[in-house]
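User: I'm preparing a small set of examples for a lab meeting where we compare how different chains pack in three dimensions. I only have the primary sequence for this one, and I'd like the structure in token form so I can line it up with the others. Please keep the answer compact; I'll paste it straight into my notes.
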Amino acid sequence: MRRRGAVLVVAVPGTVLHRWLRAGRARAAVVRPDGTVLCTARGVPDARQSLPTLSVPRPDELSDTSAGRPPDE
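Assistant: Understood. Below is the structure token output for the 73-residue chain.
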């Protein structure tokens, strides 16, 4: 999952996330950093298949323009 830019978060029993998953009869979900749910699934393997492939550059690969700064003139 990490190679695809994802982080596994365990829903601790009793938390809002855990209750939400149980209410939807899901055991896993793919959730964007902004909180948008991309999908729910019966298990992690099913959710993992729904992960988008992200290409995140390493910090040393960023140029000034790709970091949101105007290029030097």
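A couple of notes for your slides: Strands lie at 28-31, 37-41. The chain has one domain: 2-54.

User: Perfect, thanks.
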